[in-house]
Amino acid sequence: MATALQSGVFPAVSHAVNAASTVSDDGMQKILLGVSGGIAAYKTPELVRRLVERGACVQVVMTAAAAAFVTPLSLQSVSGRPVRTALLAPEAEAGMDHIALARWADQVVLAPATAHLIARLAHGLADDLLTTLVLATSAPVTIAPAMNQQMWQHPATMANIAMLTERGCRLLGPASGEQACGEQGPGRMLEPAAIAAALLAPPPAAAGALAGVPVLLTAGPTREAIDAVRYVGNRSSGKMGYALAAALAGAGARVTLVSGPAQLPCPTGVQRVVVESAAEMHDAVMARVADCALFIAAAAVADYRPAQSLPGKLKKHADTLTIQLVRNPDILAEVAARPDKPFTVGFAAETEGLEAAARDKLGRKGLDMIAANEVGAAAGGFEADDNALLVLWPGGRRTLPMMPKPALATALTQLIAERYAASASG
Ligand code: CTP
Fold first, then answer.
1. Rounded to an integer, what distance in angstroms lies between the CA atom of residue 73 and that of residue 374?
2. 233 and 191, same structural domain?
3. In this structure, what DSSP letter does residue 202 have?
4. Whose alpha carbon is nearest atom 28 of ligand 1?
5. Running DSSP on this structure, what letter comes out for residue 190?
6. Same domain as 107, residue 255
7. Which has more confidence, 408 or 330?
8. Same domain? 274 vs 173
9. Tally of domains within the chain
10. CA–CA separation, 339 and 57 (whole Å)
11. Residue 204, domain member (yes or no)
12. Which residues on neighbouring strands pair with residue 325, listed in sequence order?
């Protein structure tokens, strides 16, 4: 019998394996991929390939309905491991029983996750191998939903998703757009490359992509003193800026990080200058900007500070207290307006109209690039570990999908390096 590989259905598998062999998982990230019965299941061989490319070992488990959309043999061919389908299969259980399989996984990803699978997971059912494994594992679980937009927006599905995310499951997608059924709306499974990128960090940005380039970067929140003990602040954790500093250093840049108060260790190879207020951050940046070729403003700088800061502690007297705030200097705009301006990258956190607001900021502040993210949404943003970015530059744009901040920082560094090189050669 011809295997899927021999018949050329999946010709691009770099580690072409005999369908009967099993890939060793020594030291590799072990991913248990659960496939349920939706049309998007046809994309799972591609997803397996993307995960394998990034160095993962993938064990596929299919629901009975999934086999109507993609064959176990196809998935066995690309993963190099026999696909598991049945809970009570004596032969498979004799090899690695379902509890051992649940323990084996470093991560569980359900892609595509149909409305039915999501409902079964939300209610803790264990009526097949896949749902049993999800109950039996302590590994993080990621769900990539795929279904008709009406089904996705149904209150029952929304409630099930809310239950699962509250329990700690991570949600990837769904994306919006044209659906297999001809309708438009949210419910498309994220593309395999985006899912793989979100699960596994990409290879480090090409070492040397920014070799020797002096980069000045701001990160973290600022604190604007009201009195000796109180301040006006914001919820920035500094995670994105610090991850970016580490990724830039990994790409060979000489990084100086001007950081507001963040509870994070200084990344290896990065020179850090710690400041507290926007005024201090402004002075620290202006003292160093002439020596940098790239300036990245990732800090959440307070736009206003109290007009007066009391040297002692403010005592309570009246029932109300009015604090007058005055504008802080805009560090990013000031750097971008310099005659000897470095390649300048800003960030924008928006609650609505993301692209229009960010494009406006790009033009208004005279930036070379802006990385925008939505805040106030269910996932991503200030204190989260994951984030997604829409990156804009004059005449171009790229979307970096939801992924852990270190992976996102690496992807952003690659893009900054590309645009920086283009601007230097232009
Ligand atoms: N920024 C800065 N100095 C400031 C304020 C902001 O360098 N005083 C930088 C941030 O680091 C970020 C970008 O500017 O890169 C954010 O732009 P900003 O216009 O401040 O964003 P918002 O405060 O969200 O703007 P607005 O209130 O106008 O929406």
1. 41
2. no
3. P
4. 361
5. P
6. no
7. 330
8. no
9. 2
10. 52
11. no
12. 306
400 C-alpha to ligand 1 centroid (Å): 21
Question: Vertex 316, ends 315 and 319: CA angle to 5°?
Answer: 160
pLDDT category, 183, cuts 50, 70, 90? confident
User: What CA–CA distance (Å, rounded) separates 413 from 211?
Assistant: 12
Cross-strand partners of 49: none
**Which residues are bridge partners to 273 per DSSP?**
258
Q: Is residue 188 part of a domain?
A: yes
Predicted confidence at residue 408, as pLDDT, reads: 86
State whether 52 and 175 are in the same domain. Answer: yes
| Average of per-residue pLDDT values in the chain | 88
pTM, two decimal places: 0.62
| Position 385 pLDDT exceeds 80 | no
Whether residue 294 is contained in a domain is answered as: yes
Which two three-digit tokens encode residue 15?
A: 């580690």
Whether 335 and 295 have beta carbons less than 8 Å apart is answered as yes
Helices 115-122, 129-136: crossing angle, 10 deg rounding: 40
| Domain containing residue 289 | 214-310+319-425
Are 269 and 334 part of one and the same domain?
A: yes
Give the mean model confidence (pLDDT) for residues 381-408: 83
Q: Which residues contact 26 (CB under 8 A, 6 or more apart)?
A: none
Q: What is the pLDDT of residues 5-50, one digit of tens each?
A: 222 222 222 232 322 334 445 567 899 999 999 999 999 999 999 9
Centre of ligand 1 to C-alpha 302, Å, is 8
Tokens 């994070």 — which residue? 264
Within 6 A (CB) of ligand 1 lie 218, 278, 297, 299, 301, 303, 328, 330-332, 346-349, 361
Taking the CA of residue 291 as centre, how many other CA atoms within 13 Å lie in the half-sphere pointing to its CB?
12
Nearest to 219 by CA among 317, 112, 331, 124: 331
| Three-state secondary structure call for residue 255 | strand
CB 257, CB 217: distance < 8 Å: yes
Q: Which atom of ligand 1 is nearest to the CA of 332?
A: 7
Q: Tell me if residue 292 is catalytic.
A: no
Q: Are residues 82 and 123 in the same domain?
A: yes
- Tell me how far the alpha carbon of residue 311 is from its chain's centroid: 42
Query: Can you tell me the mean pLDDT for 176-203?
Result: 84
**What is the CATH number for 421?**
3.40.50.10300
